[in-house]
Amino acid sequence: MLLEMEQITKKYGGFTANRDIRFNLREGEIHALVGENGAGKTTLMRMLYGMEQPTSGTIKVRGREVSFATPSQAMASGIGMVHQHFMLFPSFTVAENIVIGREPAKAGAFDRKKAAAQVNELGRQYGMPVDPWKKVSECPLGMQQRVEILKVLHQGADIIILDEPSAVLTPLEVKELLANMKSLAKLGKTFVLITHKLQEVMDVADRITVLRDGQVTGTLEAKDTHVEELSRLMVGRELVRMDKQPSVPAEAVLQVEGVNLSGAKDRSALKDIHMEVRKGEVVGIAGISGNGQSELIQVIAGLRKAESGRVVLSGQDTTNWPVRRIREHGLAHIPEDRYMWGAAKDASVRENGLMGHHHRLQSRGIIKAKAARTMVEGWIKQFSIKTGSAETKAQFLSGGNLQKLIAAREFAQDTPFLIAAEPTRGVDIGAMETIHAELLRKRSEGAGILLISSELSEILQLSDRIIVMYEGEIAGELRAEEATEEQISLLMAGGKERI
User: Fold this and answer.
1) 259, 328, 417, 427, 449 from 411: Cα distances, Å
2) Range 480-495 average pLDDT
3) Domains by residue range for the chain, with CATH
4) Which of 56, 108, 272, 443 is 20 to 30 A from residue 192's alpha carbon, by CA?
């Protein structure tokens, strides 16, 4: 075996994150590590990468027992990690990010030309070309991830840990990532893939290890298993099949009329947008990241000001109203970026849950502590949010558990209109089931929902109508029951005339 982790246990005070874990790697394989949010996947890999130390247990690399106190020691043994949230310097070039820590020098100074040449050769060697002179801030997310992978390859990694690598990628970028992984595995590189996306696991993995509540529930050959079995091992039960009844839409709850917004570099972020969402329907918006979806929902929610046109919510012109006033008029919002727009990391789980609810949970300016605690603890139970307590700081929640908290908070607003932007980003399959059920419940109760998702399967599964955006414009609109992934993908690429 290339790597063996035996009886690994990790405790934080009275909480056990990993218990007696056995995990191993064969050279040149892609080994998926799956499980619900808080199952212990990332904790296990952080120990392998030297970011945490086991409470007990042993790690062997090529038969030799090792103990890593720092990531540098792990890297010296050929182990690299690409984190879910990229650790790049946006103002640096691609080459500067890749060679950092191992910079080539000439006459005692950093040799940029040699660094660019090294990066070009690295990209050629591994079939992952990049522009070494381009600033990372100008690179799309898929390219930034390629830079991260090339960085660990430049550091000499033979074992590469990828933590939720497809969470922020478009469908085309995901396909490219999986193809790159397969190519690198053929060249002898070994991957640990941490993910919630079971279809990706089935597409790329050789073996799969499933964790539940910090313990291994199974290690399987991918060719001998299927998504349903993995789901059962992850959540400990059979998943409920989603029952989506035909929609019965009523009057419009949202109308967007001729909205325009300027973008960067003299380009339009939004061009004459006309659309509506009716009560009792889910309208999905599909598009490659950066084509106006983010700007559209920010204008509707009051986070950005439209330059022309208007937004009508529940019959009232709410164009450019303050955020709080729009929300009080009947808008709830699960934001696409949970850290920037959705939470305060230094506040507690309870305090984050109270946001937007605090006005109705106070008396004479004082929050009703018991009512607030009961409300948030109810969400923790309903959405299986793994946290030590409601007083734990939000920064100590996994990304998926924070996403579940934000989704629960916004569902509980009980508004006639909901923006759900990437509502299941980073969550496990059990939480995805719960969030999807809540979206359909709101729809059945007469709410209008605007769904933005980079997952085409989610758009197709939940939407009644699908709007596709391309370069700030609406490229087309389809009935969900008639739409295919191929049609949507063509519209996403600007192929309006071919539909």
Assistant:
1) 27, 14, 10, 16, 11
2) 83
3) 3-235 (3.40.50.300), 252-498 (3.40.50.300)
4) 56
